[in-house]
Amino acid sequence: MRYRESVRGTQTSKPADIESNGDSVYARSGIMRVTTDSDGEQREEWQYDEAEMTRSEFSRLMALDSSWVTEWSDAMRVAERRARYERMDPLVSSLRRKIDLGIDAESNRQELMKVQTYLHAVHETVGQSTYPSEVVYPDEPADI
User: Fold this and answer.
1) DSSP letters along 38-103, please?
2) Which end of the chain has less neighbouring CB within 10 Å, N or C?
3) Nearest-angstrom CA–CA distance, 54 and 20
């Protein structure tokens, strides 16, 4: 099984949560529409995290009792949250360094607060009623 983060797709309609193609099965989560800018041209794409497995692996997974499936789903969600935290680490470090150096400290404190609020919201996804089978993540701060 392979796990990929932030996969981009140009499908015309929303990709399925579970899709079979040949001998591969794709389990997707966090599917959302994003706008990309390529050579000054904006276009809409789908972005999602994806686990790719063989049909055999998928069959074994589905044959497991629900507690194992829940544990597997929870492990995927932990990995997703960790990836979101790690994407913010360089930004948090940079903002803290600027604050420590007194560089536009108030503005950088506000930006740091946005990031910390986002990270807290990511952490709180474990309390969603559909967790771990389906999770709605907050949007990453884009204007920082």
Assistant:
1) ETTEEEEEEEEEEEEEEHHHHHHHHHS-HHHHHHHHHHHHHHHHHHHHHHHHHHHHHHHHHHHHTS
2) N
3) 9
Tell me the backbone φ, ψ of residue 68, rounded to 5 degrees: -70, -40
Average pLDDT per block of 10 residues along the chain, 144 residues long: 89 89 90 86 90 87 63 80 92 96 96 96 93 89 78
The reply to whether 78 and 115 lie within a common domain is yes
In a domain, 102, yes or no: yes
User: Does one domain contain both 82 and 56?
Assistant: no
By residue range, what is the domain housing residue 69?
65-132
Domain assignment present for residue 144? The answer is: no
Residue 91 burial class via C-beta count within 10 angstroms: exposed 0-12, middle 13-18, buried 19 and up: middle
Number of domains in the chain: 2
Contacts 24+ apart (CB under 8 A), 120-124: 122/81, 122/84, 122/85, 123/81
pTM of this structure: 0.54
Beta bridge partners of 19: 26
